[in-house]
TrEMBL record:
<dbReference type="Pfam" id="PF00582">
    <property type="entry name" value="Usp"/>
</dbReference>
<feature type="domain" description="UspA">
    <location>
        <begin position="2"/>
        <end position="135"/>
    </location>
</feature>
<protein>
    <submittedName>
        <fullName>Universal stress protein</fullName>
    </submittedName>
</protein>
<comment type="similarity">
    <text>Belongs to the universal stress protein A family.</text>
</comment>
<dbReference type="InterPro" id="IPR006016">
    <property type="entry name" value="UspA"/>
</dbReference>
Length: 142
């Protein structure tokens, strides 16, 4: 078996736990893990003063989050990462389509209470994904 497993991360502990579950699933399937962090808009912030100024965009921040998670998962499998524009569920679905992923892994954060009624990333992905969806239990992280 092989293929690509896509996982969404946002820097939170719950997303980290979902990424660890995705890593384990990818290892069991002999698949590549693709870590994705979404960003809504490509805004930029300037930091520094005088001639020492840096421009940091939302895309840069999202890529940093994805790379940081990918770098710390420590596994014998191939792990790639990317930043993807759009709302998290939409970005994950587009990445899964473009990579012809066999599964998307998301955490179950906000799938209880009012979040369940209003929707969540996991709910949106589960209803619109072009592939299998694995919802990792991340309730004990909060």
């Amino acid at each position: 078996m092989s293929g690509i497993i896509v996982v969404g991360v946002d820097g939170s502990d719950t997303a980290r736990k979902a990424a660890e579950s995705a890593r384990d699933l990818a290892a069991a399937l002999g698949a590549t893990l693709h870590v994705v962090s979404a960003f809504d808009a490509d805004r930029s912030d300037k930091f520094g003063s005088g001639s020492n100024k840096w421009l940091v965009s939302d895309a840069d921040k999202a890529e940093h989050v994805a790379r940081s998670v990918a770098d710390t998962l420590g596994s014998d499998i191939k792990i790639t990462y990317a930043a993807a524009s759009g709302r998290p569920a939409d970005a994950l679905i587009r990445e899964a389509i473009s990579k012809e992923a066999r599964a998307i892994v998301v955490g179950n954060r906000r799938m209880r209470g009012i979040g369940r009624v209003l929707g969540s990333v996991a709910n949106s992905v589960a209803h619109n994904a072009p592939c299998d969806v694995y919802i990792a239990n991340t309730y004990d992280v909060d």
